[in-house]
Amino acid sequence: AQQGHIREKAYGKQKIYFANQEQLPAASEAELRSLDGEITTRTTAVQVLQQSCRQLEAELKDLNSSMTTTELAREVKELRKECAGYVEKLERIKCASNHVSPEEKEKVCSEQKLYCKEWRRRKRMATELLDAILEGYPKSKKQFFEEVGIETDEDHHVTPPAAV
């Protein structure tokens, strides 16, 4: 600092040292323009490199997320095995001799509809009858059902099938 190579500034109890810029040569206007041009060319080069780097990283990510050849071969083998199992199952179903004829199926479906309809009708009748009895009954519906011994569909978590 005494020789003038660096400068010293005191800020309270602290001292800051920095290079004396008066001794450095000043750049001419032409040098400054050439340095600015070099900065611009290098900035564009950096941007181009960053863009290519991003593209390569995206390509690497795609390659890492895709299956390798061995994994793909194993997957194809498993799928073919699964497909063969389905073909075999289909053949067994086609060859089965215990098929239900459409007439029998229709008969069973119509009987189910009839029974479900009767179930709903009887349940509605029983509910109306019990509601009529409960109008003059002093205790709760639950207590009445327990005394008489009535079990409802809800007690057994049963509901009639939905109408088709």
Topology:
Layout: E1 6-11, E2 14-19, H1 29-65, H2 69-95, H3 102-134, H4 141-148
Antiparallel strand pairs: 1-2
N- to C-terminal separation?
101 Å
Q: Give the helix/strand class.
A: mainly alpha
Tell me the quaternary state. single chain
The total strand number stands at 2
**Approximate helicity band:** 55-70%
Mean pLDDT: 88
Neighbour order of strands in the largest sheet: 1-2
Please summarize what this structure is.
By secondary structure, this protein is mainly alpha-helical. It has a domain at 106-163. It has helices at 29-65, 69-95, 102-134, 141-148; strands at residues 6-11, 14-19.
Please, could you describe this protein's structure?
Its main location: nucleus. InterPro entries: LZ3wCH (IPR040661), WH-like_DNA-bd_sf (IPR036388). This protein has 164 residues and is mainly alpha-helical. The chain has a two-stranded antiparallel sheet. The radius of gyration is 46 Å and the shape is elongated. The chain has a domain at 106-163. It is built from four helices and two strands; from the N terminus they run ββαααα.
Keywords:
WH-like_DNA-bd_sf, double-stranded DNA binding, 164 residues, nucleus, mainly alpha, 7% strand
